[in-house]
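User: Hey, my collaborator sent me this sequence without any context and asked if I could get a structure. I don't really work with proteins. Can you help?
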Amino acid sequence: MGQSETSGPRGPEPRPISEQSVAELRARALEYRRMAATASTQQVADSLRRLADRFDAEADKRERGAGSA
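Assistant: No problem. I've predicted the 3D structure and written it out in structure-token form, which is a compact way to encode the shape of the chain:
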């Protein structure tokens, strides 16, 4: 009771990347980079940086697309 359709047992379900704004994508990339800086292993840090790069790449793609519209 009181939970929205997007809430799961662990809190709100994340929205698909396709529904996130450029600002949200950039914020997620920054969050992953901060997590990478404190990661317990190099493998985890590298994986988090790759995720950050993917979010930034998607934000770049959308900014280019918005500029040509």
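In plain terms: The chain has two helices and two strands. You can pass these tokens on to your collaborator as they are.
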